[in-house]
């Protein structure tokens, strides 16, 4: 009696103290990112939000989501999500218990379709999106100041382009969540995992839930991460968000939650779901939720039995699609009932009977109406639905005069097939799920599952014959020119098989066949529907070749050459080219150059003319140009570079005295010792010749005048050194009477001394000079008089 009274008092305390503080609405949820599959970068974003069913939840209709780059939190875009589905209530096993605990919840779904440019989302570190809301449940017992704590839905996704290729990916998907209570000191498990549509590996771990930037402020600004964690009360952490033995844990592979709670209260928790592909993490999503731990009275409701109306006792039943099965359990006016399919509570399934027509594993949970305690579950009953729905799959084609089609439907054990043509039975074995036909008509089949008597009649398939395939060969002509090919074009199909003189040409399957050999050709064409036809024969003739010749034309020097008569075989052709008139060639009219002359014979209208050709050369007459004279000094080496025209290729210098090579175009004179006259004879490739002569004078010394008169009268105004040009390396220096240099010319006397120093005229009088002919020669010294 004492224990029962204690439990009743504790129950009243829970009711009395819990209800006033559970007036807010945020419970949990997650973001999903689903590839639509039509265009790269086209996604459907879904926010699943679990809310307390109250007025504040009714005001929640969506919000803004921001996408950010993980590397630097750069904002990429902001978009809005709006409610996309009708709100569904979260079904509790004991609805009366949910009402008494003020824990009635709904699930709201917000969504939007977005188009991302993959080229803008190629950062290797990936991206994240967030949806931030406010007001967690004020009755939460494991975090500080829950009413002023916000909520951040968070999802990470990889770059959309990797190694130059589009990287296709969707985030994990999650089923609906049951409304459940945890009984203190009772083991509890809960399916919290999901599936990945791309087959990626999912890894689960407990993590601290996220607050929003600004806490519970009402700002609607979309902000980037990092986002703050909620603040745990002392003694709580991600792996001890619900105290117990053991505490709340998640299976790292399946995502199943398990706990044996040891403390009463409302506890929030979060699970991180990481997505791995080929061992590399590519994404992440966080799921938040909360559980209420209560002190459950002793279980007094027995495990209820489940049976099928009108059926023998069993745990596995099979029905035909379109039929239904009634499941029922024991009637007890003191019990609440809640039916489940595949572990999920069914809405409005709270009676003793349940009519089912979908496959799944069904069970019913009962709890006492007078107490909010642990529910008892029935045995699982498996319902299988035989769905024979299918359509006839035709393969093949009825052509104009032949062809066949194989009709097929899915096969199976214990199956019978009744085929019909134009509503009349077709005699085939009853176990054949295929039928090969050669005649047009209306075909259908009735499928029967003999064990359970399920039947289904497929839609009718109408089969007709295809039109006649018209095969043909098209070509611009019927004869092949010498050394050429003739394109033949096959018409009437999508694939082609060619024959020459009755033999297949295995290497040619294209519509265009370029033939090089005379013969009779046909093509078998196959239409897109598989029907075939063969063309009429197409005869191709070979035009015999013609040999054309043309006599050579002599080369001439200059444009004053004779006029030549042109000759070609066979007769009757046409001559053409520069300087050609009829059968005459005039080099003067052609001009300087290498001219191609042709002789053409038009031997067949389909073919290009047969052509012979010769090159007529009108070569330029060479010219040789030298300076009038070269002046130098004894022992000098120099190169003579004449100006040449007419493309000479042979060179002969005479005499060869002082020359390194008398056959070079640019003669190298070495260590000249005396005056000499050179003659250069040149000849081009055509044999045209020319000659030039050069005089070289050798001076042994420079003649130095003793005075000059720089008075600007145009006579003797500079100190002129005779023969100085023979000494290109001469160095000339002039000094005043104090030994100062007033003029200096090195490497040639190119600017003669004009009696000035730095632009100012020097006084008349005597000046010393020093001349060095070559760097290694002795100085020539003397006195120079400047007269004014």
UniProtKB/TrEMBL annotation:
Protein name listed in UniProt: T9SS type B sorting domain-containing protein
Record InterPro entries: Ig-like_fold, PKD_dom_sf, T9SS_type_B
UniProt lineage: Bacteria, Pseudomonadati, Bacteroidota, Cytophagia, Cytophagales
Pfam families: CHU_C
Family matches, as SUPFAM superfamilies: PKD domain (SSF49299)
Keyword NADP: no
Signal sequence coordinates: 1-23
Keyword Translocase set for record: no
Entry keywords, A to Z: Signal
Annotated source species: Larkinella terrae
